[in-house]
Amino acid sequence: MRAILARLDIQKDPEIIRYRTENTKWSRARLARVLETGRGTFVLDQLQTFCGRAEAMSDTLGTLAADFYIAKVVNMVLASARGVHPASVVDQTIFHTWDYSSKIYLAGLLKGVQVDWDALTKAPATGSVSTKADRLVRILLRSHHNRSDGNRGIVFVTERVTAVVLHHLLSQHATISKLFRVGCVLGSSRHDRGRRDLGDVHNPADQSGTIKKFRRGEVNLMVATSVAEEGLDVSACNLVVCFDPPMSAKSFIQHRGRARQAGSEYVILVDQTAQKEEKDWERMEAELRAKDLLPSSMDLPSLEVGRMQLYDLASSSDIPLAAADLAMVETLAGYSFRKRGLLVEALTHGSDLSAQEHDCYNRLAFLGNAIIENLVSDAIYRECSAQRDDDKSGGGGGCRLLGAMSSYRAAVVNRYYLGYLAMARNVSQARRRVKELRAGTDLVLEQYSAEFPLWRFLKHCSGEVAAEMSAAETRFATLRGDLAQAVESADAYPWLLLAQLRATDFYADVVESLVGAVFVDSGAMETCEGLLDRMGLMPYLRRIIRDEVDVVHPKERLQALAGDKAVKYEMRKEGGGLTCAIFVGDRLVARVEDRATVDDVCIKAAAESVVRLSS
């Protein structure tokens, strides 16, 4: 593979040819940068990433795994270039959005790769797999030998491609394939719906029903990525192996919690030289057991037990927030806290000095996000099912709505919309001020109503946060009317307006943390749903479903308008801001400049591209 890269004639790259043909100031700058760095075109980047993955595969899983990976990818590219699309050979979604010229150019380069085609069907043998992969096989065999009541295990890996290749190796292994029925689940990603990379050898359709088969016992060994970990709620699991060490304490707890039966095993594979890392995980497990967050019986605490533990952890000492402020937030939420320390925690940013003593909102925001996801999913299902039952015409409207559930959920559970709620939902307070009716006349005492949005109650000690609050308040004042009208009556979801609002993460965090605090204090999901009703989330969700509001994201709509042509986003930093140029095929469709985040600029550019392509 490296030899192919070394011999590559960059002047034949379709993007280099395009830059020379355009001959604009921007294209000349891009051309100079690519020629100087030797990277930056789609094909170059794909090949370099592919080489890196193949080398990493050899180190992680062994030479057979690397040979299989290379053979599978090359076979997929060549089959696609020939127009061959049998499902057993190629996943069409990988290449259908690529430029034809790039696909043909890449296929021509890969024809020169020396491929071991036998690797596609060869069974692993001693010496052909890595020490780590061999150790995994030994663990699986030992576990099967030590249990008389049957095995059900999960092997967690970090990379999707590693999961696919490891699943293949275990399925082909002479002994493992007889003792285990191996499945693979990778989790879903928006990346699956857009342009896919050269080395993405998985087919999203392949994992349909795999989790159900695992629960039923038809599959008893699952290879899964960490992205999929939250969906694998399998109480009968008795073996969990972390092929790659957990990336965080959260992942450690979730992985550890899958092995719940008595006598279950939990194994983390680490390098022999990583003694400190091994001790860190052992220490974390001991601490979790000491706090009863990971009991020896391996039964994870129920939701209610976990809620009570969070309730007990909340501070009961003097709280660093005025009682009047807390009362105003309770009025906004429509809920009176039994333990106001939870409300203080929900309103405390990590930069605040009191966070060291009373904790900040992170823990409650994490919980609140999960609760909102759960309540929104239930509400969508109820609304869509009701419309399906009421559909007397036989047109299948309710079924169509059920198919859009994920889009509806994404529309109301995202940082843009939740941030907007933190700005738009407020509590009023009657105030007085001295006013002179006319120059030289007597002063009078005037009553007026002041509005306090939720975000104003957030405690912090950060100049950066204060500056962002001031800037966002100005943006909100400009966009408030348009956003309110869009939420109330527009036929399309206001993705562009929300992107222009640019609500920083802490705005959404404070909404989520408030929901989390209400749940921990009340123990009632119904109370949390009532809060979301008061905040306006549930009413808007119901209107979206009832009126069939168009919630398609600009990026997804752009991809649909592009058809078989590839959509490419090119970002540059210019003058303190960002520039996003969007190409559909070889055509520059839109270029947008803004002092915003990468996501915000991309949304604006995608929206502008949609307008231009639709006109």
Structure description:
The chain has about 625 residues and is of the alpha/beta class. It folds into four domains: about 1-120, no CATH class; about 130-300, 3-Layer(aba) Sandwich (Rossmann fold); about 360-545, no CATH class; about 555-615. The protein has helices at about 1-5, 15-20, 25-35, 40-60, 65-80, 100-110, 130-145, 160-170, 175-180, 210-215, 250-255, 275-290, 305-315, 325-335, 340-345, 355-360, 360-390, 395-405, 405-410, 415-425, 465-490, 495-500, 505-520, 525-535, 535-545, 555-560, 600-615; strands spanning about 155, 180-185, 220-225, 240, 265-270, 425-435, 445-455, 565-575, 575-585, 585-595. The strands form three sheets. It has a five-stranded parallel beta sheet, with helices on both faces. A hairpin with a 2-residue loop joins strand 9 and strand 10. Helix 15 runs antiparallel to helix 23 and helix 17 (about 360-390) runs parallel beside helix 25. It is globular, with a radius of gyration of 28 Å. The two termini are about 45 Å apart. Residues about 85-95, about 190-195 and about 290-300 have low confidence and may be disordered.
| Mean pLDDT across residues | 80
| Radius of gyration from CA coordinates | 28 Å
**Which spans of ≥5 residues are poorly predicted at pLDDT below 50?**
84-93, 190-195, 291-301
Major sheet attributes: 5 strands, parallel
Number of structural domains: 4
Number of helices: 27
**Coarse morphology:** globular
- Placed side by side, the strands forming the largest sheet appear as 2-3-1-4-5
Structural class: alpha/beta
Classify the beta-strand content into a percent band: 5-15%
How far apart the termini lie comes to: 44 Å
